[in-house]
Amino acid sequence: MKLSDWRAACALPVQEKDLLIESVCGIDKLHIVSDGASVLLSDQMLEKLAHLQARRLRGEPLQYVLGFAYFLGRRFRVCPGVLIPRPDTEFLVAEAVAWIRRKSKPHSRVLDLCTGSGCVGISIIKELEQDRSAGVELVMSDVSEQALAVAKENCAHLDGRCEKISFIKSDYFASLPSLPFDVIVSNPPYIKTDDLAGLACEVRDHEPRIALDGGADGLMAYRKIAAGILQFLKEDGHLFLEVGFDEAEQVKALFEPKFSQIDIVRDLNGFGRVLHLYNA
C-alpha cells in the first residue's frame, strides 16, 4: 500500500495522521506530502499504523499513542500512568529558573516534588545548562514507581549528567531525607474531585487519577506540602507551586503562617498560576 493511499484513508486529522507516519516510518512532514505516492508501506508498518490509529480513535491521548510529549521544546517520554506535560507548567519552570539565575549562590539543591515524567526538574537543569555559575543538584520525587521510571528514562535521554540527579519514591515528604533544599518546585494534583467527571474524556478516562485529584476542595496536596515544608526548605529557600486557575488565593492562605512573602505570578490571561513563597 502506498503511503498516500493510507494517508487518504486514515480517519484521523491531518496533523495527527502525519505524526503517526513520522513516528512509524521515520518520514518527516515535507516528504510525507511530496513523496507519499512513491513510498510503499511494509506489512509491519501497516500493522503498526493500524494499531496506533485504533488507539487514537478509542480516545486515548495522542501523546500516549506516540509515546512522547513536547515541553519547552524538548521531547519527553510519556505513557499511560504518567501525567502528560502541559504548556501551563512551562510557566512554573520559567519562574524557578529566573530566580535561580538571579540569586548569588553558585550551587542549588532543588527538589521536584510530584515529578511525574520529570519534565519540570529536567527542564530546570536544561535551562540552566549554559549558566556555568548556576550548578544544580536535583532530587526528583513521586509516589508512583511508574512515574519515577519514566523520569529516569527522560533524564538519561535528555540530561546525561545523572550523577547530579537522584530519584526517591515518596508520598510528598514522607520518605525524603531531611536535607534542606534551596528550591522546591511542585505541580501537585489540584482538580476538585467532583470536577473530574467534567474533564475531557481523554484526560478523565486515560490520565492517572492520582496526578489529577486534589480532593474535595482541590487543596489536599497543598495541605500536605504546607505541613512539612519548613523541615525541607532552607531558611532562605524558595518554594514554587503551580495552582489551579481559581485557587491562588486559597493556596496562599494555607501557606501564610509559614512564609512572610507570597507572590502570586499571573499568566498571560491574568490568572494566578504560580505561587512564589519565601521568607524575606
Automatic annotation (TrEMBL):
Record-linked InterPro entries: DNA_methylase_N6_adenine_CS, HemK-like, N5-glutamine_MTase, PrmC_N, RF_methyltr_PrmC, SAM-dependent_MTases_sf, Small_mtfrase_dom
Catalytic activity: L-glutaminyl-[peptide chain release factor] + S-adenosyl-L-methionine = N(5)-methyl-L-glutaminyl-[peptide chain release factor] + S-adenosyl-L-homocysteine + H(+)
Biological process per Gene Ontology, one example term: methylation
EC number: 2.1.1.297
Keywords, ordered alphabetically: Methyltransferase, S-adenosyl-L-methionine, Transferase
Domain Release factor glutamine methyltransferase N-terminal: 13-67
NCBIfam families: hemK_fam (TIGR00536), RF_mod_PrmC (TIGR03534)
Protein name: peptide chain release factor N(5)-glutamine methyltransferase
Source organism (scientific name): Candidatus Egerieisoma faecipullorum
